[in-house]
Amino acid sequence: MQRQTTIAKNETIVRKWYIVDASELPLGRLASKVATKLMGKDKPIYTPNVDCGDYVIVINASKVVLTGDAEHKKNYYNVSGYNGGLRTRSAGTMKREFPCEMVERAVWGMVPKGRLGRQIIKKLFVYEGEDHKHEAQKPEVLKLK
Question: pTM, whole model, 2 decimals?
Answer without folding.
Answer: 0.92
